[in-house]
C-alpha cells in the first residue's frame, strides 16, 4: 500500500488453515512486527499504543475488512488523557494483488500532498527533530521547527513564511529562531546551512500562489479517489 511517503509491506501466511498477514509498516514508523489474522484470534496483534507524548496516546490497529477481505482496515485513534477528547480515522489498504511499483507511486503521490515534513526519528519511530507545515493558500502560513534539548524535551518554534527574507544569510530572523533552525539542522545530520537553504526554497514555492492553487486542487482530487466513507457505503449496500 502506498500513500504519500507511506510504504507498508504485507506478507501472507497460512497457520494450520488460518489465513493471516505479517505487517511491516515502516512508512508510518511502526517499530514492531504486526500480525493480522482473518479470524481476529491469536496471534492477532489488535490494538497497540504507537505513541504517547504530551499526555496524548495514539493507538493503531490493523484488521481484515469485515465485508471485503481484499482490504485491511488501518485504524488510528488519538486520546487526549488531559481532556478526555478522542479523535481518529481509518484507511483502507488493498492486499488483493501484489503491488509491484510502490516507490514510484509513493514519489508521485508525495508531489501533491499538502503536508510537508522533514523528520529525524529514533529506532522506535519517535520524532527527534525536523520541520513541518501544511500547504494552504494563506498569507499567514507558518512552519514549525522542532528539536530535542539537552534534557530530551521537544522544543517547537513556529515561524511565519512571510517573515523569511530569502536574500539574507540570516533569513531576517531573530537570533533565537536561527539557533533553533541550526540546532534542528544538526540533529537532522545535515551539513551546516542546509536547513536554512531548504527554508529559502520552501518560501519561494509557498509564495507562488498559482502553483499552490494547482497543487491543492490535484491533492483534493486524489483524496476524493481515496474516500473511505464512500467506499464503506458502497460495499454495505
Number of helices: 5
Q: Which structural class do the helices and strands define?
A: alpha+beta
Quote the beta fraction. 35-45%
Report how far apart the termini are: 25 Å
Question: What global shape is seen?
Answer: globular
- Average pLDDT level: 86
The percentage helix is 25-40%
Low-confidence residue ranges: 228-237
Radius of gyration, in angstroms, nearest whole number: 20 Å
Q: Which strand order does the major sheet show? A: 6-7-8-9
Number of strands: 13
The biggest sheet amounts to: 4 strands, antiparallel
Q: What order do the SSEs take from the amino end to the carboxyl end, as H and E?
A: EEEEEEEEEHEEEEHHHH
Describe the model.
- The two termini are 25 Å apart.
- This protein has helices at residues 102-111, 175-187, 194-206, 209-225, 228-236; strands at 2-3, 6-7, 9-15, 18-24, 34-37, 48-53, 56-64, 71-80, 86-94, 115-121, 127-134, 142-148, 154-160.
- Mean pLDDT is 86; it is low at 228-237.
- It has 237 residues and is an alpha+beta fold.
- The chain is globular, with a radius of gyration of 20 Å.
- The chain contains 5 helices and 13 strands.
- A hairpin with a 5-residue loop joins strand 10 (115-121) and strand 11.
- A 4-stranded antiparallel sheet has the order 6-7-8-9, with no helix packed on it. Strands 10-11-12-13 form a 4-stranded antiparallel sheet, with helices on one face.
